[in-house]
TrEMBL record:
Recorded superkingdom: Eukaryota
Sequence ranges assigned to domain Major facilitator superfamily (MFS) profile in this UniProt record: 1-100
Protein name (record): Major facilitator superfamily (MFS) profile domain-containing protein
PROSITE patterns, A to Z: MFS
Transmembrane segments annotated in the record for this chain: 46-63, 75-99
One Gene Ontology term of the molecular function aspect: carbohydrate:proton symporter activity
Coiled coil: none
Protein family per UniProt: Belongs to the major facilitator superfamily. Sugar transporter (TC 2.A.1.1) family.
Subcellular location: Membrane
InterPro entries reported in the protein's UniProt record: MFS_dom, MFS_sugar_transport-like, MFS_Sugar_Transporters, MFS_trans_sf
A GO term from the CC aspect: membrane
Amino acid sequence: MTRFTDNFPTVVASSSANGWPTSMLQLGGILGSLSAGVLGEIFSQTYTMFSACCWVVLGSYLYCGASYHKPGLLYAGRFFTGLGVGTFSGVGWVQFLLLV
């Protein structure tokens, strides 16, 4: 995507920097899925799903805030989105097991 390449040339130029956005999403997903069961037991699955939604919205706002030549908010947004998606996956898996 030409606009992404223009806004974040340091991320595109380096292969290691190019892998960090994907790695940050995976790291957030791991932490979110590991915490989903505990949070679902303490706060209920409904509130845990709501908090996961809030993490995804926060990550989306951080994506929008990532500015020219400053990919830090891009990485943070990927992490928080991964946290929310991992929490969704963990709570969804628990609900599936309860139905079976």
